[in-house]
Amino acid sequence: MISIENNDNLVAVTGATGYLGTYIVRDLLEKNYNVLAFVRDPKNEEKLKTLKSFDSTGSKLSFTGGDLETIDYEKELKNVSYVIHTATPFKYSSPDPWGEVINPAINGTLGVLKAASKISTIKKVIVTSSGLAVYDIGTKKPESNDDDWSNPQDPINQPYPYSKVAAEKKAWEYLKENNENPNSNHFKLVVINPTYILGPALSPVVNESVGTIVRHLTLAEKPRNVAIGVVDVRDVSKAHLIALENDNADDQRLLVCEKVATFKDITNTIIQLFPQYKFNTNTLVDGPEPFIFKLKSNKLDKLNFGQLIPFEETLKSMVLHLLDLQIVKPDLKN
Question: pTM value?
Answer without folding.
Answer: 0.94
